[in-house]
Predict the 3D structure of the following.
Amino acid sequence: MQIKIVLPVTVYVDNIGAIFMSQNVTATSRTKHVDIRGKYVKEYSEDGVIKIMFVSSGDNDADILTKNLASDLYSKHSRKLIRSK
């Protein structure tokens, strides 16, 4: 596709547990199913391909598409999405 990408790609995550798992890959009985994927994420992070950043639900515009939000957060995110057109 020949799309030029500027590295590192910033990945915004609103789950502190997912961020922790991406930085400290350890397999437990509850996390074995994500073990392989976590190793890839950790490797990409260490290699400088991706940069994982925390974003709170109040600032995460993607929440409008993935969660049931209170009316104030819904209005805030929808205004930002409509304005960006």
In short: The chain has a mean pLDDT of 83. DSSP finds four helices and two strands in the chain. Residues 57-85 form one domain.
